[in-house]
Design brief:
Elements (H helix, E strand, L loop, with lengths): L2 E4 L5 H12 L3 E6 L2 H11 L5 E5 L5 H9 L10 E4 L15 H29 L2 E6 L12 H21 L4 E8 L6 H5 L4 H7 L8 H12 L9 E4 L4 E3 L2 E2 L3
Helix pairs in contact: 1-8, 3-4, 4-5
Length: 249
């Protein structure tokens, strides 16, 4: 049984991952910004294992520090950190981009990942064991027009994962970087700020990945033998060849 902390656990990939790993008997710390959703998920998953919830916004360093420092002693030894929280806002060229959107993506996808990791890594180093799973994107592999800042933040996740591996391998800590392709979650609804019609077109005419598919992949990496580290994993739906190319029916 592992103690696993999942950020962005109130929806999408994070929620599916928390659910699967809970059903496998791990102790799960679910993290998110919406307390009522956290409590609902905690109630649901408590049927399978021990669940602890933390409410904080990864973009706010003070909230991150306060929340993680508040963990009871029996929850402090985190075996696996899954840095899932992140976002995409807008699909505009740089010349028309909104700086608030840029800040939200950089703060969530890059700084938030760093803030949480900085709090968890020292304990892993002391114990000479641990596993960090960072959720990147195929957007890190191929930049696309009108998504430059989002692509840049996910490229940063790749670089951070590589750097973590260089710094942490000697301490017995695994680092896994996962690059999902098109996954049908609230991702596009958030990107298009609640425009359901526009968001639906992203997943129309083909079978996109589901959050459960990525959860399966994360679980595979987390459950690998101690001497095995899955360093990088790229996952496309069958209909997608690269970020910009999807073959629709």
């Amino acid at each position: 049984m592992k103690t696993i902390l999942v950020t962005g656990a109130t929806s999408g990939i994070g929620k599916s991952t928390a659910e699967l790993l809970a059903k496998q008997g791990n102790r799960i710390i679910i993290c998110g910004r919406r307390n009522e959703v956290l409590e609902s998920i905690k109630t649901e998953l408590s049927a399978f294992t021990e669940i602890f919830s933390l409410k904080f916004d990864v973009r706010n360093l003070e909230e991150v520090e306060t929340a993680i420092n508040s963990l009871p002693e029996e929850w402090k030894n985190i075996d696996v950190l899954i840095n899932n929280a992140g976002n995409a806002y807008g699909l505009d060229p740089l010349s028309a981009g909104k700086t608030d959107d840029w800040d939200s993506m950089i703060d969530g996808n890059v700084k938030g990942l760093l803030y949480v990791s900085k709090m968890i890594i020292p304990g892993m180093k002391e114990r000479n064991s641990g596993h960090i799973v960072n959720i990147s994107s195929i957007a890190a592999r191929q930049t696309y027009a009108n998504g430059v800042v989002y692509c840049a933040t996910k490229k940063a996740v790749d670089v951070i994962s590589e750097g973590m591996r260089l710094e942490l391998t000697e301490f017995g800590i695994k680092v896994t970087n996962i690059q999902p392709g098109a996954v049908e979650t609230d991702f596009s609804l958030v990107r298009f700020k609640g425009d359901n019609e526009r968001a639906a077109t992203v997943y129309a005419g083909y079978d996109p990945l589901k959050a459960e598919d990525i959860a399966d992949s994360i679980a595979y990496c987390v459950n690998a033998p101690k001497h095995v580290c899955i360093s990088d994993m790229t996952i496309y739906p069958t209909a997608q060849a690269e970020p910009r190319t999807i073959y629709r029916k």
